[in-house]
Amino acid sequence: MTRYRIGIDVGGTHTDMVLVDTLNNSSRVHKLPSTPANPAIAVLEGVQHFIASGIAPADIAFFSHGTTVTTNTLLEMKGARIGVLLNRGMRGILEVQTQAREGWSTFDHFFVKPEPLARPRYVREIAGRMDFSGQEIERLDEAAVREAAQALTADGVTSFAICFLFSFMNKSHEERAAAIIREIAPQSFVSCSSHVLPRIREWPRYSTTMLNAYLAPVLSRYCGDMGRGLDELGVTTRQRFLMQSNGGVMPLSADAEVHTVRTLLSGPAAGVRGASYLLARAQGWRNLVTMDIGGTSCDIAFIEGGEPVEQSEGTLDGRIVGVPAFDIATVAAGGGSIAWTSESGLLEVGPKSAGADPGPVCYGKGGRQPTVTDANVLRGALNPDYFLGGKISLDLDAAKSALNLEIARPMGIDVDAAACGIVRIINARIVDAIRVEAAKKGIDLAGHTLVPFGGAGPVHAAQVAEQLGMRRVLVPRNPGAFSALGLLCSDVRHDYMRSELVDIATLDAAHAETCFASLESEARKEVAVEGLDPDSLVYEREMDMRYAGQGYELQISLAGITRPLDPQALNAIAERFHTEHTNIHGHAARDTSVEIVSYRLRAIVPMPKFAPAKRAAISAETKPAHFNRRTVLLDAGRNIDARVWRRDDLTAGFIADGPAIIEQLDATTIVPDGWRFTSDDDDNLILERIA
Amino acid sequence: MTTLTQTVDPVSVQIVRNRIACLMDEMQHHFFRSGYSTIVRESRDFSCVIVDAQGRLITSPPMFYHATAYYHLARSILSIYGDNLVDGDVFISNHPYEGFTPHSPDMAIMAPVIVDGKLIAFSAAIAHKADLGGTVPGTSYGAATEMFQEGMLLPPIRFYAAGKLNQDIERLIAANSRQPRVVIGDMRSQTGAVTIGRERMKDLAHEHGIAGIQAIMNEAIDAAGREMGAALKLLPDGESSAQAFLDNDGDRAEAPVKLHVTVRVKDGRVTFDFSQSDDQRRSPVNLRPPQVEGTCFHALIAMINPQLRYSDSARQYVDLILRPGSVVNATPPAPCSNYMKVSQRLIDVLIEALNPFCPGRAAAHAGGSGGSIVVTWGAGPRHAHHNQHEIFGSAYGGTAGQDGASGTTVHMTNLFVTPVEIVETEFPCRVNRFELIPNSGGDGEYRGGLSFQREYLALQPAVVLYRGDKTKFAPSGLSGGKEGRKSRFLVDPDGPNEKQMSANCRVELQAGESFRIEAPGGGGYGDPALRKSGARARDREDGYVT
Question: Which of A605, A635, A663 lies at the terminal end of a domain, its last residue?
Fold first, then answer.
């Protein structure tokens, strides 16, 4: 039976899961505290939870999850001790990096570079050199590689990054060095720059390769634990996946020595994929701002014209990551963010989070420092008796006394003012981040809909939207499990590339076809190893092109170009390049020859997608009534008297004006006065500004 | 009834200011991604800006070098063309005196933004060109004695009239350049970036209305000025001086050039008095006033609060005393090619002079400019499409609380190093060493940053022009810190004929010969005896100190 599909989103605080029954297209959600020391434990517990409820493990046909394990390892600098092999005389590449001060005020002479992933003592120079065309001009000093592998392994290095010049033209030195290291230290991980990012410009390639090496052992151990755990639970499917930063999934068994760095945005990418598939593609919401607030952080992304905004190279924590990814900004603002008073007597929130353990004070699990969630309970936004559908009863008094002790008393204000201040600060931080990110991308927020998800998204959304001048908020059906749902909307995606500089006027079309064919066969091989069907692969071709003399390329899609490639097709591609150059850079140079620099192949194995059923329309007799009223303090310090509904009671087409509170198992939505809400037939809760 | 002062909502001001800052980033991105010369696409030696109808910057670009020149350029265009500007006009100039560019290789392109016949702003970029003629390849001539040896000079002239390119001017530039294809390619990319800026500004004007966008820009400019004014109010009144010397003066090993400043602060007004700086020189170490303004604002902001935004309303709080005919206010035809190393050194002097006003904020002298090379490749199996032009950073000086950063561009420059793989792919040479120089940071409680060296092997005959600084006068330490290592330019490094060259030199190499650039290190901060033993041990472990 291939009945069930499971998506699991591992956050810093909670692990959210969704189980879809493909027989009747229904879904069930489950939430449990994350286990940061080994995140696989919570995932497996969750799977166990579904099995215990009567699901036969053999009926689980598909398992996919998003993880922050690599991101957190990097941010906490807890990755492997890595050794780096460089060409002789080339240490400066790691020290000078770009030479520029990106992300710093140009005026600031207190500039510092990020902590190095490998101290100089773990960096070894190896004789051996390729020239620019990939010709060997000096033999690889194999004895030096051997010596370095032995010495570094003895020094506790468990993962190696091999970073040689021009390896994107000729991999043989890197691959030979890797083979030697594997002989000497078979347990080690070895990441070659020619495998991780076969592209010219050494520093972005080395930076990406070192990140891969730093994180590969962690990801590999994690995937190993996960795989064994699933086996032990009796889960038999080979369809076990991990979300990548580019919104596609890869198998748990994918090669960590090549692919680890592609998971750095695994966690946040799942929700963006969910929004782009479920809301944009399936329901026609084309322009969205996603705001995923969990326990620790808030992730912000944009969907323009139905597609997530992507970037081909980004930075994380000041480090260059040269692989394609969704363009996601993260700010330290979550339900667990801790409030404190600084020495100068100012109220501060975060960046520290109480996480899942001990969690906010009101959880009663030993937390003493007040958090955003505690402030939300105190101001009446959260119902202490209906948190997680009543599974956890919140300790209002404990939250109150902590807030009083830590914030109100030192600042000489009352507890309400303290709660209100905490929420104002966190809202403003999110507002600023969205505003700056939108401006960077030239996005006009007025035409966009804010999509809050994550457990803490909907409680802040309307006030964030209000401050941004946005008039519409869309709360999806299961905000807490929305990222997990996104995992059930993703295809398997691998990106391949091959660099080979040629003037398109002299390019033999048959040769170009051979280049793409070799990438396709690489993809077929990798997919077969991963246990997927190579015949199901769908390919998207692209070429990196530029005018002769330029240093950067445009990625030109070959969609709609006849294949196999012929001379007419090459003409059409050149024409497409001129047009794109004009569209993007504002000018073209038709009198200059056009070069192809790289062939790129995106290989996709399509996966079935979750398609929720429509919600039944309202009939006059079943108009749902609110079941309660309560007072909520808004961030501006104003009290509103709100009617309280249960989300499950709302039928399609129901409309009411705020102030209102809509409670559901995994989230609470606040509708301030001046807003109206309705439930649509896709089961979204739509908030619209009416005043 | 219409009022002259339209009130603006602070949120719109914030949004528009952010959008203009992002637009400047976007222009920057398009320019280097579509540029041809390595100086544009790898070093990114250019800036892109939006200024208002009076030429005032609303927010500063990531590289501050040119920031204060745009104001003067816009005014120059307005005084020449006045009301005669129409949509689609594009002006260019590379003239240090008439167009206010820092030196003649820097070409400015500026387009008025005109909506409904009304001038609301300018979109502009200044970018270093690969070659605009003159005595030597690359145009920057270290031994020039007058500006006429520094390539062709274009006062502000109309390059596009109402959207139509004046091809005569393009041909004129091409005819004067040793590298016409690269230069014309970069001119097109630069015009493209400026056009993007102009069109987006028109969109903004349509969105907010002409009066609206003007009021918003005014308020954004004023707000940044008010922040600056408030920060300056906190400075104590007083007076302080500092000075330093430039190595030499062009190719002739003449007397060192003295750079001297006296800073006076009174009631939040700051006066920078350069009267005691040396007279202008016959060689290209001279600065034009916009560059001096830039160094003063840079140093001020660095000292009072590096997060402050610069807008041209900051000018109201600052007075500059620049003696005409001095090295900081040269008169024609004094050449200006080497302005960069002069400005960098001047910032260190300014920071030192401001030290008593902002305790704990100063840094020891940085390495400054790490030098630049222009290599013209001769005959051989490989053909170089253009000159190899690279600009090197150095290192920061130590500060109260931290070691100076190693291997970085400093102060007003924010340039990227040219990757080894780009250098070797495009030019017949090999990079054999690219390393930090151990012990190059000045000792101190907080050590100066380490500079780096890069060594090249010529595979074909070549002519190398090198321009650097600090071969004679090392970067100073501060508060008891030691000086950083001097720079060196070596031919046949570590070989039998090793020779150290002067800070401005021209070297002819045969295939198989090599040269090495060693950039100057940062000065140390504080008494070396106070340096923590852990920090010393770590330096030794990392090989930074031997």
Answer: A605
- Predicted ipTM of the assembly: 0.93
In a domain, A279, yes or no: no
CB contact under 8 A, A121 and B23: no
Is the domain of A90 the same as that of A195? yes
What is the number of structural domains in chain A?
5
Contacting residues of B for A96, CB less than 8 Å apart: 393, 407-408, 417, 434, 436, 452
Nearest residue in chain A measured CA to CA from B425:
A132
- Give the pLDDT means over successive 10-residue stretches in chain A (691 positions): 87 88 87 86 94 93 90 88 98 96 90 94 98 96 98 98 96 98 97 94 96 97 94 92 93 92 92 92 92 91 91 85 90 90 77 84 91 94 82 88 92 90 89 80 84 94 93 94 92 87 92 95 90 92 91 89 93 94 85 90 89 68 77 84 91 90 92 94 93 78
> Domain range for residue A18?
4-73+221-242
Q: Look at residues B182, B207, B227 and tell me which one is the last residue of a structural domain.
A: B227
A111–B contact, CB cutoff 8 A = yes
Residues in chain B with CB shorter than 8 Å from the CB of A547 are 36, 185
Alpha-carbon distance of B443 to A625, in angstroms, equals 75
Residue B232 lies in a domain: no
Q: Are residues A113 and A175 in the same domain?
A: yes
Are A454 and B39 in contact, with CB atoms under 8 Å apart?
A: no
Tokens of A537: 């692969």
Question: What is the β-pairing status of strands A298-304 and A288-293?
Answer: antiparallel
In a domain, B48, yes or no: yes
Residue B44 structural domain: 10-227
Report which residue type is found at A148: A
Are A31 and A232 in contact by the 8 Å Cβ rule? The answer is no
Q: Rounded to a whole number, what is the distance in Å from the CA of A98 to chain B's nearest CA?
A: 5
Query: Which residues in chain B are closer than 8 Å to A98, comparing Cβ atoms?
Result: 416-417
Three-state secondary structure string covering A43-58 = HHHHHHHHHHCCCCHH
Q: Can you tell me the distance from the alpha carbon of A211 to that of A223, in angstroms, rounded to the nearest whole number?
A: 18
Nearest CA in chain B to A166: B421
Closest-CA distance, B338 to chain A, in angstroms, reads 21
CA distance A442 to chain B (A): 7
**Entry pTM:** 0.90
Q: Is A630 on the interface with B (CB under 8 A)?
A: no
| Domain boundary pick from A220, A251, A277 | A220
How many structural domains comprise chain B? 2
Residues in B closer than 8 angstroms to A92, CB to CB, are: 407, 433-436, 452-454
